[in-house]
Amino acid sequence: MQQFACCTRLRHGGIRIHIFIAALSLFALARSGAWKQASRFHATVLYMVAGNLLYFFLTTDYLLWAFVPDLHLIPVFTELLYTFIVFPCTVILFLSGFPDRRKEQVWRYSKWVALYAVMEAIYAWSGRIVYDHGWSWWCSFAFDVMMFPMLLLHSKKPGIAYVLSAFIIAALLLMFRVPIWNITMHST
């Protein structure tokens, strides 16, 4: 798959799902009142944003997955919606009021993993996300199972989260044979 070559297969019409999800994320954050605690989770928001930006830097010519944009929007706009709206809202909503009891923690993890898995299944079914180079919905599910505990870990022990993240990134790059030696800087 060339960068976002999948976009030629875009089925126009229907709900503008990516824009809707970004708006819904902002609404959920406002409605929950969790935005009042946003400053507490600023570092973890940046951790998630940096992780997503790093994915695009390392895989720019070898994408494992890509959102198919709504309307005729340029692909990067869709990514920016997720990077700077959906993912920060996710971090704040997931971490705010995080329970102390183990059973409630497992329930919270399960709900968020299920939410992400169901949304991605809808994206895949509707042609709003495409996979390549061995990545699949199951890979995304496994990543989500790992991602939410990493967000909590980063909020409590960022140093350990960064070290573990480096190992996870290296493992994923090797597993999916991402040719990082071919990274080029695209000039305008």
Summarize the topology:
Blueprint: H1 17-32, H2 42-58, E1 65-67, H3 75-95, H4 102-126, E2 129-131, H5 137-156, H6 158-175
Antiparallel strand pairs: 1-2
Keywords: Membrane, Transmembrane, Transmembrane helix
Transmembrane segments: 15-33, 45-68, 80-98, 110-129, 160-180
Which features does this protein show?
single chain; 188 residues; mainly alpha; two-stranded antiparallel ribbon; 6 helices; transmembrane
What's this entry about, in short?
This protein is mainly alpha-helical and 188 residues long. It is 62% helix and 3% strand.
3D architecture notes:
The chain crosses the membrane at residues 15-33, 45-68, 80-98, 110-129, 160-180. The chain has helices at 17-32, 42-58, 75-95, 102-126, 137-156, 158-175; strands spanning 65-67, 129-131. Helix 1 runs parallel beside helix 3. The chain has six helices and two strands, in the order ααβααβαα. With 188 residues, it is mainly α. Strands 1-2 form a two-stranded antiparallel ribbon. The two termini are 22 Å apart. It is 62% helix and 3% strand.
